[in-house]
């Protein structure tokens, strides 16, 4: 539309944007041509861990928390952060550990069931079958 000589207002109406955007696009087009208008990859801070380091962390986490000296085989953000620092030398914030786990590793939040270690399923079943009906009131 720029090459055809359309005005900024005409282009803005046709595309559904404000005229200021069209003015900015026209300036970019005059300086660099059509290729300058192409979408570029989003900029931003590069990740602290490269792909090889992420795979190293993935392998370490797959071995389980006990393999890294923790007494329970349960991963927390702090524990994962400690393993990342140990394996790569990179210190990550809790938020960055969360993004690593959910974004790059594809993990999801899993909460362990809260159960007593001493729980006896057979005794619970026996109590429900024999004791509960005996003490339950009503029909």
Automatic annotation (TrEMBL):
Residues 72-130 form the Winged helix-turn helix domain. Signal peptide: none annotated. It comes from the Bacteria. Pfam families: HTH_29 (PF13551), HTH_33 (PF13592). This is Winged helix-turn helix domain-containing protein. It comes from Streptomyces antimycoticus.
């Amino acid at each position: 539309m720029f090459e055809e000589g359309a005005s900024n207002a005409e282009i803005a109406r046709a595309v559904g944007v404000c005229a200021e955007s069209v003015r900015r696009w026209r300036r970019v087009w005059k300086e660099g041509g059509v290729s300058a208008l192409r979408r570029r990859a989003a900029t931003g801070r590069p990740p602290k861990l490269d792909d090889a380091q992420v795979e190293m962390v993935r392998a370490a986490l797959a071995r389980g928390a006990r393999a890294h000296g923790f007494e329970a085989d349960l991963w927390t953000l702090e524990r994962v952060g400690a393993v990342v620092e140990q394996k790569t030398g990179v210190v990550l914030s809790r938020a960055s550990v969360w993004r690593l786990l959910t974004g790059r590793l594809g993990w999801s939040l899993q909460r362990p069931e809260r159960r007593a270690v001493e729980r006896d399923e057979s005794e619970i079943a026996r109590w429900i079958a024999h004791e509960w009906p005996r003490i339950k009131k009503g029909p």
